[in-house]
Specification:
2 domains
Length: 433
């Protein structure tokens, strides 16, 4: 090992054994065959003992493992020596960024922590004197007790940083959303100002939160545009921007299909855009080749309207089961079409906003590799989406139609579908899958 390699191992070991570890992130696997794309490690308290929770993230799901200190040291050393090329280590005293060099070994860059509260907000951690209770204390990106201007202005917080009781749920929702974004920050460009579009921004709690995350917590230059079809909410958002003297944050009345960005869009957000408006947003984001997409769909009527009572009886016999099945099937096809368009895609549970039961979040990050494996996964995902649609006996839904119109996915003929087999549930070559 080089000197820097030894230094990285020392820092990892000491952070765990000295209980100064706040968070460690392992990313950028050394091989495309590695299914786990990223691992986050943080300390938690379980039954009165300190453990270390490993969050393992694949393309489609997250799983957790809890290890003791000695096992954590051994596993983190293994991860940096054998699996991952990037490591981010956050302790009470400093943040260390490590990446592998082309000729082997590691480059290290360490910066001291200026304030405990700043470190807490920026790195999803808490000051050392706060208990790490797994069941009672949540480590928020925007911590309670630290005044946050936009939350104070919107009434979520009082001036001393306390969360008002009636907004406790909203406060949790905002932080949960920021966690979803924070997890994919490494997938966004780092060499220029980020461009972000939020379609269907509404009252824009989460738009302001996203601006705060990048500009204040992560100290990243970003330019955000919020779009909504309602002129009254857009004016309210503009008033907040003016009152807080926020920069690089604009709100406009309009639809995403008619919006012309001034440059490449890196992150597209769409929360609870009704019915096929979600599909419009996803199709536009794919056309823009966004690095990342976060969408919480809402009110999926299109498939529901096409399903007859006999389609999957008795699933479609009762209104409530038909509605929920249509929503799940629609989101499944949307996720598959994102994979078909070249994105790592996850479907995850999201805390409901404004008491809505629509709480699935689709998160996608654009692949950078044109490998045979990626192309095979994309082709299979497109086949799967169309197979599901045929099984349900429905026409192509909005997202598939939009992507076909834009020439972003192969048409059925380009998939070399045999003649007179359009009504079969799958292609012959897929029968063994």
């Amino acid at each position: 090992m080089t000197d820097h390699s030894r230094e990285l191992v020392r820092l990892l070991r000491e952070s765990v054994l000295s209980t100064s570890l706040r968070k460690a992130v392992f990313s950028s696997p050394g091989t495309d065959k590695e299914l786990i794309r990223r691992i986050d490690v943080r300390p938690i308290e379980l039954q009165g003992k300190i453990k270390f929770q490993f969050t393992l993230q694949t393309e489609t799901q997250q799983t957790h493992r809890n290890l003791n200190a000695q096992a954590t040291v051994a596993e983190m050393i293994r991860l940096c020596q054998q699996v991952y090329r990037n490591v981010r280590l956050v302790t009470d005293a400093a943040t260390t960024e490590a990446r592998t060099a082309k000729k082997g070994g590691w480059f290290l860059k360490t910066r001291a922590t200026a304030k405990a509260t700043t470190t807490s907000a920026a790195d999803n951690s808490v000051p050392a004197n706060v208990p790490l209770s797994h069941n009672r204390v949540r480590n928020y990106l925007i911590p309670e007790g630290v005044p946050c201007p936009f939350l104070i202005h919107t009434g979520v917080m009082s001036r001393d940083g306390s969360v008002r009781a009636q907004f406790a749920r909203k406060f949790r929702q905002i932080n949960r959303f920021l966690e979803f974004i924070h997890d994919i920050v490494d997938d966004l460009p780092s060499d220029r100002q980020l461009q972000i579009v939020d379609f269907g921004c509404g009252k824009s709690y989460l738009t302001f939160a996203t601006h705060y995350l990048f500009s204040t917590i992560l100290n990243r230059s970003c330019y955000i545009v919020g779009l909504d079809r309602r002129s009254d909410v857009i004016q309210s958002c503009r008033d907040i921007v003016s009152s807080l003297s926020l920069t690089n944050l604009e709100f406009h009345v309009g639809d995403i299909a008619g919006f012309q960005p001034g440059g490449p869009v890196d992150l597209m957000i769409s929360l609870h855009a009704c019915d096929t408006a979600t599909d419009d947003a996803l199709a536009q984001a794919i056309a823009w080749k966004c690095s990342a997409i976060l969408a919480v769909p809402c009110c999926q009527h299109e498939l529901n309207d096409q399903l007859g009572e006999s389609a999957l009886s008795p699933m479609t016999t009762w209104g409530i089961t038909k509605d929920r099945f249509a929503a799940i099937a629609t989101d499944t096809m949307r996720a598959s079409l994102l994979v078909a368009s070249g994105y790592h895609t996850q479907v995850m549970e999201f805390i409901d906003i404004e008491h809505t039961p629509k709480n699935l979040l689709i998160r996608a990050t654009r692949r950078t590799s044109g490998s045979t494996g990626a192309k095979t996964a994309a082709a299979k995902a497109l086949t799967d989406a169309r197979q599901l649609r045929r099984q349900l006996g429905t026409e192509p839904l909005a997202l598939e139609r939009r992507l076909n119109e834009l020439g972003l996915i192969a048409t059925p003929n380009e998939q070399q579908q045999p003649e007179n087999e359009a009504d079969k549930p799958a292609h012959a070559e897929d029968s063994s899958q």
